[in-house]
């Protein structure tokens, strides 16, 4: 299996300065390569510059600018150029599919936070001791940086990435040939219904509360954002106070992100430990959080009818705060490692179908869902919690899929 490990770096003050310089120089290389592609297409008879053309110039660039480009790993600079090429490949793919193109943009100082080393030992080296007490990562141009290794690394280290999150630095290891850590079988299958009031509800009637991390820190975050917005545009990124205000907002967002990630890992581990098969809805979070389309008023030129955008914005915020997509991805990864099975099922009408598993009649109707929490069948008058009904229907569909696969 392929797995990624993420560890906190503990650089010295001098190493932290060198890490920032490394990001800045790789960002400059990225932006320069993007500018070359733009200029070639606009001014040289729509000529396309491809990835194979740009790494060939690296040797001359490193000789011309040894202080900024020559000090860093050649392979990491190739990876930065490959990153730009992938952005263009995605752009052309979206154009071909008729989607919103999204032409690659120049990266500002706060939007380029990762440098990748494609091979362990080429510009970087992972040095780990068996007891994990003297772990270091060596980076060309920076030296050996201490690593807070909180868990052992298994498999073979393939690539190493250095990432900045706020004022923290992390190293991310991509490893292959990671052995599976299978758990003993339990013989239990469960269906899981995702929600915003309850984070999830299981088919046996259990609820996992939604911690609402963003909502819990909404007041503090709003105050920090209001303070940041008081700085005039002409002074932004120029004063010490503005930079401090921006760092405070970033710290709050990072704290929320870490809390949510930790909660997702704990919840997924509990499900994996207690169940052999887990069924869940195949959710399209991107589509569910899409803003409603505007409705032009046919009787008034330039006016629009109410489209429920304000109410939808609140629901979108709750869905994104819950982080369903991240949780389901973590659940799938943990299941693969533990030898468990995760089955995504069709989510349509799961909470509108009278559950046969709970003693209902199987009738499907929108009117069955009385409120967010209440389900009452219009045919047999079966009553239950709506999320519990949805989870039991998900379990039923997962069982059918499991039988069909067998």
Q: Could you give the topology of this structure?
A:
Blueprint: E1 3-10, H1 13-43, H2 58-64, H3 74-96, E2 114-117, E3 124-127, E4 136-139, E5 143-148, E6 156-165, E7 168-176, E8 189-194, E9 198-202, E10 207-209, H4 213-216, H5 218-229, H6 240-274, E11 277-281, H7 285-288, E12 295-296, E13 304-305, H8 309-322, H9 324-338, E14 341-345, E15 374-376, E16 383-385, H10 386-405
Parallel strand pairs: 8-11, 11-14
Antiparallel strand pairs: 1-5, 1-7, 2-6, 3-4, 4-5, 6-7, 8-9, 9-10, 12-13, 15-16
In words, what does this structure look like?
With 406 residues, this protein is α+β, with helices and mostly antiparallel strands. It has two domains: 3-176, no CATH class; 189-292 and 310-405, no CATH class. The chain contains ten helices and 16 strands. The chain has helices at residues 13-43, 58-64, 74-96, 213-216, 218-229, 240-274, 285-288, 309-322, 324-338, 386-405; strands spanning 3-10, 114-117, 124-127, 136-139, 143-148, 156-165, 168-176, 189-194, 198-202, 207-209, 277-281, 295-296, 304-305, 341-345, 374-376, 383-385. Helix 1 (13-43) crosses helix 3 (74-96), helix 5 runs antiparallel to helix 6 and helix 6 crosses helix 9. The radius of gyration is 26 Å and the shape is globular.
């Amino acid at each position: 299996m392929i797995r990624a490990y993420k560890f906190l770096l503990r650089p010295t003050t001098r190493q932290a300065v060198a890490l920032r310089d490394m990001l800045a120089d790789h960002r400059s290389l990225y932006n320069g390569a993007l500018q070359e592609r733009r200029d070639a297409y606009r001014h040289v008879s729509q000529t396309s510059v491809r990835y194979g053309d740009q790494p060939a110039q690296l040797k001359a660039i490193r000789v011309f600018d040894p202080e900024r480009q020559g000090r860093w790993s050649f392979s990491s600079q190739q990876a930065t150029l490959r990153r730009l090429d992938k952005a263009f490949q995605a752009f052309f793919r979206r154009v071909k599919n008729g989607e919103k193109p999204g032409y690659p943009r120049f990266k500002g100082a706060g939007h380029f936070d990762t440098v990748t080393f494609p091979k362990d030992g080429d510009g970087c080296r992972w040095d780990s001791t068996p007891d994990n007490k003297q772990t270091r990562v060596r980076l060309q141009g920076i030296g050996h940086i201490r690593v807070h290794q909180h868990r052992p690394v298994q498999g073979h280290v393939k690539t190493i990435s250095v990432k900045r999150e706020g004022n923290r630095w992390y190293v991310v290891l991509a490893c292959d040939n990671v052995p599976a850590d299978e758990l003993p079988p339990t013989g239990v299958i469960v269906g899981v219904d995702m929600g915003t009031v309850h984070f999830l509800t299981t088919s046996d009637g259990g609820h996992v509360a939604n911690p609402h991390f963003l909502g819990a820190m909404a007041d503090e975050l709003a105050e920090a954002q209001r303070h940041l917005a008081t700085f005039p545009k002409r002074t932004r990124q120029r004063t010490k106070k503005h930079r401090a205000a921006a760092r405070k907002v970033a710290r709050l967002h990072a704290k929320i992100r870490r809390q949510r990630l930790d909660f997702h890992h704990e919840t997924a581990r509990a499900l994996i430990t207690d169940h052999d098969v887990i069924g869940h809805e195949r959710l399209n979070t991107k589509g569910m959080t899409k803003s409603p389309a505007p409705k032009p008023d046919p009787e008034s030129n330039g006016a629009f009818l109410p489209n429920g955008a304000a109410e939808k914005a609140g629901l979108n915020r709750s869905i994104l705060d819950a982080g369903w997509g991240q949780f389901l991805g973590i659940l799938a990864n943990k299941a693969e490692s533990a030898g468990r099975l995760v089955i995504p099922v069709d989510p349509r009408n799961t909470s509108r179908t009278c559950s046969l598993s709970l003693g209902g009649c199987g009738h499907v109707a929108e009117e069955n869902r009385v409120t967010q929490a209440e389900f009452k069948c219009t045919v047999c008058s079966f009553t239950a919690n709506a999320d519990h009904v949805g989870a039991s229907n998900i379990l039923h569909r997962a069982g059918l899929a499991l039988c069909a696969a067998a």
